[in-house]
Amino acid sequence: MQKRNLKGWRQSHHWLKKIRKLFFSVRTAQLANRRLDQFQAYLKACDQILERASASWDRLREKKKIKAKQHQQIQGFLKCGRLLSRQADRRILQGETIPTDEKIYSVFEPHTRWIQKGKAGKQVELGVPVCIVEDQHQFVLTYRVMWQEEDVHVAIPILEETKKLFPDLFSCSFDKGFHNPLNQEKLREMVPEVTLPKKGKLTKKEQERETTEAFKTARKQHPAVESAINHLEHRGLNRVYSYGSDGFKRTVALAVLCANCCRLGSLVRNKELQRLSKPLVRPKAA
Question: Are residues 230 and 185 located together in one domain of the fold?
Answer without folding.
Answer: yes
